[in-house]
Specification:
With 355 residues, the chain is mainly beta. The chain has helices spanning 2-18, 34-38, 52-55, 205-209, and strands at residues 67-75, 80-90, 95-111, 128-144, 150-163, 167-182, 185-192, 197-203, 226-229, 232-244, 247-258, 266-267, 272-283, 287-300, 307-321, 324-331, 342-350.
Length: 355
Amino acid sequence: MKRLVLILIFTLSCSVFSQTAKYSNEFLNIGVDAASFGMANAVTATTNDVNSGYWNPAGLVNLEDSQVSVMHANYFANIATYNYIAGAMPIDSKSAVGFSIIRFGVDDILNTTQLIDDQGNIDFNRISLFSTADYAFTLSYARNLPLEGFSYGVNAKVIRRVIGDFAQAWGFGFDAGIQFQRKSWFFGVMARDITTTYNTWTFDDAELATIQGAIDGQNQTTPEATEITLPKLQLGIAKTTSIHRDFDLTTSLNMDFRFAETNDIISSGSMSATPAFGFEVDYIKLVYLRGGVGNFQNLESLGGEGTNIGFQPNFGIGFRYKGIQIDYALTDIGDQSLALYSNVFSVKLDWSVFR
């Protein structure tokens, strides 16, 4: 256990200080699962199902049978779509494996850069369509440690990003997580992109040439070919309490760290952090009520006369019956306090319903 923790800390530290601070692949910060959204994403310590592959792969060891999860949401007033599907299964009593796919995309974008021909005439037949999409393919593995209550998990991620015929990128990275449970207390650590995640872009020069002159002063040079996603660290603690023989209450706290100066409520030149609080009340594991608040940000007021503290409240409900769970969350799926709220639905299915 000590060796695993030391390796994790050493890898994280080396990655942070050896690269220039830069964030990419922001679509991977949106999250998955309406149940988790309802708790303001404060689930690092408690996640224990197929969706653990995203939140903390160490939680996959709690699977008793194979599970499948799907989620769909619209973003930016239905302009963008966000889709997620995942599957996981126990290998034996001590280990489990999972796989997931995320797609965030904007389809049928109008390309009007060729709307005006060489003679200055507007020709609507010169308008074409293209799509831009980000994909993440994740393979997860989790295993119980010899120490009672401890488990660990790792993710291997492949990133695919496409912008029409203009550009495309491949990326690769790793996540690692640890969970510990003692009686009604839960603890979790999730390190994302522990070795930094690199995206390498390739560009179609011929396609880029068609848009380089569309707007004076823009798109005149080829963008950088490499993007770097620096590590992020998430710490979680939670407690489950029986408030009645039929009702249980789970309260959780997350502290999310990024190794760069941001608008997070706690920020310095080299690190920033923001807390998230969530709760879940369940009635005989049949009906769930959830709430949470997170994404605390320092926001500039109108006119630039000062700053205010912004935060994001969340609400969710869920229903589970015979291995089928349907969850709903009213949340800002983009994790930006100033953006519009979204209605998110997700479905989780235990494979035991087919047996």
